[in-house]
Structure formats: C-alpha cells, structure tokens
Amino acid sequence: MKAWRIVLAGAFAVALSAPASAEQTTLRIFTGGQQRPDVMRKIADEYQKKNPNVKIEIEVGGATSEAQQQYLSTVLASKDSTLDVILIDVIRPAQWASQGWAEPLDSYLGADKAKVMSGYLKAYADADQVNGKVIALPYFADSQFMYYRKDLLEKYKRPAPKTWDEMMETAKIIMDGEKNSQLQGFSTAGAPIEGTVCTYLVPLWGAGGELTKDRRLNLDTPAAREPFQLYGRMKQSGVLPKNIAEIPTDRIRIDMQAGNLIFGMTWGYVWNRLENDADSKVKGKIGVAPLPHDEGGKSATCIGGWQLAVSAYSKNKAEAVKFARWLSSPEVSKMQSILASHLPVFAQVYKDPEVLKANPWFAEALPVVEGAKSRPVTPQYPQVSDVIRSNMNAYLAGTKTTDVALSDMKSKLTPIFR
User: Fold this and answer.
1) What is the mean pLDDT of residues 13-40?
2) Which of 358, 342, 360 is nearest to 90 (CA)?
3) What residues are paired with 102 via a beta bridge?
4) Domain 143-302+374-413 belongs to what architecture?
5) Where are the domains of the chain?
6) Is the pLDDT of residue 13 over 60?
7) What's the number of CA atoms in the CB half-sphere (13 Å) around residue 22?
8) Which CATH class name applies to 6-142+304-366?
9) Would the pTM of this model clear 0.90, i.e. be above it?
10) Cys staple from 189: which of 183, 195, 223, 323, with CB 3.0 to 4.6 Å?
11) Phi/psi at 169 (nearest 5 deg)?
C-alpha cells in the first residue's frame, strides 16, 4: 500500500510551507484520514490564536491504522525530525515505548503527573502509561456500538436487540418485509485490517471468553469458536453482506449513510457523519445501542481511540508537549465531541449540555466506554493483530474453516503468550 501525505495549512491542503521566521516555532502534527483532519485544523487554528508565535501544520496520512503505522515506522526508524506530535492508535503505546519512538512525558508533567493522568477516563490513563512512564496523552476515546435503523425497527415493531440471535431475527424480518435487494442486515469490518481484530474479539467476549488468561493464550474453549460460528450463521441466513471479507471500517458508515444497512458494528465517529453529511439518507433515523451478546452472556466492546505522542526526534519537544497537553484538555475534548462526535476522554464532558445537544446518545455512551475491553497489550501487538485479522478475514472469505483458522491462530500466538 502506498503511503500518501498532504499537509493542511489554514483551511486548504497546500504544499509544504516555507520555513517560519526565527521567532516563530512551527510544529507538525500527524493524523490519519479517519481522525477528521478538518476538525484538527479548526482546533489548531484556535491554538494559533492563543499562541501567535506557534504555527501548526497538519500532515495527513493513511486511511487505516495499519497504513498509518506502516508509514510512521519508516519515518521514525530513520530518526526523522519532521514530525513533532503524532496521533497513535490506543493499541500502540507499548510498541512505541519499546521502539523508543515516543518522548516520555513524565519530566514535562513533573509534580502534576498524577493529577493530570487521574483526570482522564481510567482506561486511557492506563493505556498511555507503559512500565510507569507516560508515553502519550489521550486525545479522544472510542468504542464500538451497534448502530441501527430506528425507523425500520419502529415500522416492524422490533426493540433494539440485546442478543445476536435477536439481531439476526430482526434483520431477516425487515429484509423480507422491505424486499429491497440493496438492504443489508448487519455489517462489521471483515477486510484484513485492525478493525477485524475486534470483529473476532467482540463475540468472543460476549460469549464469556478471553483471548488470554493469566497472560497465556486461552483459545482451547468453546467461546473461542463462537465468533466463527456466529458469522457462519449470519452468512447462511443472508444477514451478512456477500462481500463481507472486503469491507473496511468506513464502508460500514458509507452503506448505512446510503440507507442500505439495518445494523452496523462500528465506532463513535459515525454518528456525526450520518446526522450531518449532506448526502446522508438516514438523518434522524439512526439509533445507537450497546453491542449484542450471546444468550446468558454480557455485552462487550473494543476500546478504541487516539492518543497524542511527542516524537522522540522532535527538535521542538517543549513546545510540542505544550500543544499536546492543550489538545488533551477538556476544552478540546468538548470541541471534538460537538464537531466530530468524537467520544470524550473526560467523564464530565459526556454530561455537558452542548455536547448532549449535538450527540444525544452520549448520555448512554459513558458506561459502554468505561466498560470497553483492551486488545492484548504487548510490544508484539502488530504480530498478534496480523494473526487474528488475517484468519478472521480468511474465514469470512470462505478460504478457511473454523478448525483451520483457530488452529493457525493457536500455533502463531502461543509463542507470543508463553
């Protein structure tokens, strides 16, 4: 996959700027395409107003977490000092700490460290500290939710489903009733991307299973087979799209926005697009609920979100940390919530009246985010991710059976979790 780059300056994408004057500091922040660089630009403009001696350039690269990390690995392995602040996936701090790519922030936070970190949702404060060191600061939280066509469920007098079987039953009733060949029942990430790790883990957790137990692999359980069996039933019933193995994260949003999807397992950013994009056909028609689970199980979801790391190779570390701390403030968390439906990293922002006006579903979102589960925390996470998503993708594509996919996962993950 080719890496692609644009730099946003002012309101437009332009060529890289000429060097700033001697008295001005230029900081460059890296963000991915799905993390709303347009919103980052508005936020950066506010910072520049408050700090006229600082100019913020925004570099945008990669449409997925994997593409972004692939590019950043190349940049940082060469000790390139071009980037100052970098948005990293919540799964990355352990890897970045082991590689020495992120500047530890402890000395910059000083005596305020405990107070600063205790202000965030605990899951994110924990995720950003590795071996006692602060590797990054939370930017926005995220979890997966069940998005659904509220209007269609009301039409067919069906409640929001609590179990996977209820979801499939409702999807079939609506699909049969609507007789629309474009209407899909349920979609989730199925392409060989990071989101497909959660496509496996969510039903595993919802069946009471765990990927690891006491830091050892824990796939010799009935629950470990449940994700494959669940999606197998969905395929047989026609609820899953036929091209499920080709669907990346944002395709779910696109299909729902076009009015072609009843249920979708996807992330918090989707709400803003469904409600506010000019071409959305489902404005006012969408509900959001916790993800389903097995009968007798409990709803679970993947923790997601993006963190602010300061490059270990930045030539402007003090200014970069100052900028990162502002980006990681309640003020900016509120701005993101309103402008992009990015979930806050501060509990109090979920209750802000202006935030709730823009995102009414945030009133029920906090318990879901607080209960979200982490993907395996290990410096070897890239290998773990590749094993899980490639086997889940192969199963969805029909090129591996449950037994073959599970056997491959066991053989490749066992050496990592000894």
Assistant:
1) 74
2) 342
3) 311
4) 3-Layer(aba) Sandwich (3.40)
5) 6-142+304-366, 143-302+374-413
6) no
7) 0
8) alpha beta
9) no
10) 195
11) -65, -45
